[in-house]
Design goal:
Number of helices of chain A: 7
Number of helices of chain B: 5
Structural class of chain B: alpha+beta
Number of strands of chain B: 5
Order of helices and strands of chain A: EEHHHHHEHH
CATH topology of the largest domain in chain B: Ribosomal Protein L30, Chain: A
CATH architecture of the largest domain in chain B: 2-Layer Sandwich
Helix content of chain B: 40-55%
Shape of chain B: globular
Strand content of chain B: 15-25%
Oligomer: heterodimer
Shape of chain A: globular
Number of strands of chain A: 3
Strand order of the largest sheet of chain A: 1-2-3
Strand content of chain A: 5-15%
Structural class of chain A: mainly alpha
Radius of gyration of chain A: 17 Å
CATH class of the largest domain in chain B: Alpha Beta
Largest sheet of chain A: 3 strands, antiparallel
Number of domains of chain A: 1
Strand order of the largest sheet of chain B: 4-3-5
Radius of gyration of chain B: 21 Å
């Protein structure tokens, strides 16, 4: 997979193999299966009762975060359909969608790192001793983090 | 067929979605708190069953916004969020980010309750863990 900054301030994702598609497809499921729906509640855990956060803000955050995942999933599916049977394809992350992509990737990383108990500081060499599902999750998490770094450097204001 | 719903017929604004209801109630709650008046509500049941008093004195004064460290958010991202939400310079935002990272939390803004709540809402939307606490007098 190649990630190329565009002149418009976005990114072009050039998918080269079927594995690339598999990893991209996993962003939303990783977030959802890891309990992304609980994220607003976790973020709000320290708010006082006066704020009525659970009633007023959490539902809105829930919709907002779900929208990020939906946008990412739909973009990837549309690109896959366009590529047909070929493993190669491409799609754009528009500048205006940078924050949503970053947020979706963050949700996926939070979910994976919570579920498998590893963090961004985890030594890559340790991953070799992980059982297959955890190793696979670790590699995806590293990929999501790398894509976030590119978004941070080239896309986000 | 519902004739009233046919083409060219005039319809009312339609029922409020739950989101709109919540936003309206939230706005009403904010005004009520500013005025120090009593409001009644029980949102989950959709009926008015609970009396909730909020006086302006309870929420008056200065409130601090605290942001807490977490292992997931990238440091550069936290800096950008502080710049975006609060309009801080790069230096200010980086200083705060480093405080969050090293001390586990940082006081990022102080002021009235209402804007503080809006700031916290924005921080949560960027997936930063933040909360409010009343400043010591």
């Amino acid at each position: 997979m190649k990630v190329v900054p565009t002149l418009e301030g976005g990114l072009r994702i050039e998918v080269e193999t079927a594995t690339d598609w598999l990893v991209l497809e996993q962003i939303a499921p990783d977030a959802l299966e890891g309990g992304a729906e609980n994220l607003p509640t976790r973020l709000s855990a320290l708010m006082d009762e006066e704020s009525e956060w659970d009633e007023m803000v959490v539902p809105e955050l829930q919709d907002f975060f779900t929208g990020q995942l939906r946008m990412v999933r739909d973009t990837i599916h549309a690109a896959q359909e366009e590529s047909g049977d070929s493993p190669e394809g491409q799609f754009l992350i528009m500048r205006e969608h940078g924050t949503q992509w970053y947020g979706a990737l963050n949700q996926a990383r939070i979910a994976l790192e919570t579920h498998y108990s590893f963090g961004p500081g985890q030594d890559v060499t340790e991953a070799e001793s992980f059982p297959p599902p955890k190793r696979s999750a670790f590699i995806r998490s590293q990929f999501y983090c790398a894509l976030q770094s590119v978004l941070l450097e080239h896309v986000l204001d | 067929m519902d004739r009233a719903a046919g083409p060219g017929s005039r319809r009312g604004p339609g029922p409020l979605t739950r989101d709109k209801q919540l936003r309206n109630i939230y706005a009403l709650g904010s005004v009520a708190r500013e005025l120090g008046v009593t409001i009644f509500k029980n949102i989950s049941a959709g009926t008015i069953t609970e009396r909730q008093e909020k006086t302006s004195t309870e929420l008056a004064g200065t409130w601090n916004i605290l942001v807490f460290d977490d292992p997931v958010n990238l440091m550069g991202y936290v800096t950008k969020v502080f710049q975006k939400v609060f309009g801080y310079s790069l230096e200010q935002a980086e200083d705060l980010m480093i405080t969050v990272h090293t001390a586990g939390k940082a006081l990022v803004w102080s002021g009235a309750r209402e804007p503080a709540e809006l700031y916290v809402q924005q921080l949560h939307s960027y997936q930063l863990q933040a909360s409010l606490e009343k400043a010591q007098q």
